[in-house]
Amino acid sequence: MNENFDAARLTLLLSELRLPATKQIWATFAEQSDKEGWPAARLLTVIAENELAERDRRRIERHLAEAKLLPGKTLDNFDFNSVPMISKAQVAALCAGDEWLRNGANLLLLGPPGGGKSHLSSAIGLALLEKGWRVLFARTSDLVQRLQLARRELALEAALNRLDHFDVLILDDLAYVTKDQAETSALFELISTRYERRSMIITANQPFGEWGKVFQDPAMTLAAVDRLVHHSTIFEMNVESYRRRTAIERKQVGAGRPATFATPKNVGVPRPGDNKPPA
């Protein structure tokens, strides 16, 4: 490196240009370039590629922090054998295809509790996030209560606009929303606002025919279902609960044998004895 080179000035310029990754590593690349005799164009290319890679990494970190996805739930540790009606190819196509998201289409996961709906929805959200889409995972009841509070504070429109920043909104356990006029009205407004504009992934324990337990009147139920199923993919995950299955296995073969269920690497699943009082 040229002895007259002003390293401090370059560092200052890189700060002004907001190139933090280049500021941190330029000296290493420059030293390697001097040793190996790189052309200037190669040095610039390597530095630019590194800066872009670091920007992508930081963006994913930011988006992951805001997404509130379930920890430990990935496609790699989802047991597709436990839900034979869902194929890896189907899920891979959803994670790889951009068209359904650009068209504001939805994904609906229906089935009884314990079938892996929450795991799969969060894992798909993670795969989409890694591709650059902004994702938010929320329990439906929690989110609806926040929207209801925003309505009381005359800030519902602002709250919906903030949610509009997310390409994919994952509403988990839709059926657990309280059948309250204010809450169901806020939920319906959210569905209507995102219709054909922003995508949603929704998990629900009840089939559509029982959604009258969620919404206040048949007309609202019909309108909500109509908006959700239009341009949607529906996964019906009618399988036995892995919780029940693993409880039966423990009873039959003892607690020492590891269970097999829809989320084999599920973080936070209690082990036998976890809830026993200390001796």
Describe the fold and architecture.
- The chain is an alpha/beta fold and 279 residues long.
- It has two domains: 7-65, no CATH class; 80-236, Rossmann fold.
- It is built from eleven helices and five strands, in the order αααααβαβααβαβαβα.
- The chain has helices spanning 7-16, 20-36, 40-67, 88-96, 99-102, 117-130, 140-152, 156-163, 181-194, 218-229, 242-253, and strands spanning 106-110, 135-139, 168-172, 199-204, 232-236.
- The protein has a five-stranded parallel β-sheet.
- Strand 3, helix 9 (181-194) and strand 4 form a beta-alpha-beta unit.
Largest sheet: 5 strands, parallel
Please trace the helix and strand order, writing H or E for each element: HHHHHEHEHHEHEHEH
CATH topology of the largest domain: Rossmann fold
CATH C-level label of the largest domain: Alpha Beta
Work out the radius of gyration: 25 Å
Indicate the low-confidence ranges by residue numbers: 257-279
Q: Beta-strand percentage?
A: 5-15%
Cα distance, first to last residue? 68 Å
* CATH A-level architecture of the largest domain: 3-Layer(aba) Sandwich
Question: How many separate domains make up the residues?
Answer: 2
Q: What class do helices, strands and sheet pairing give? A: alpha/beta
- Helix share, percent: 40-55%
Spatially, the strands of the biggest sheet line up as 2-3-4-1-5
Number of helices: 11
Which key features would you list for this structure?
279 residues; alpha/beta; Rossmann fold; 2 domains; 5-stranded parallel sheet; disordered C terminus
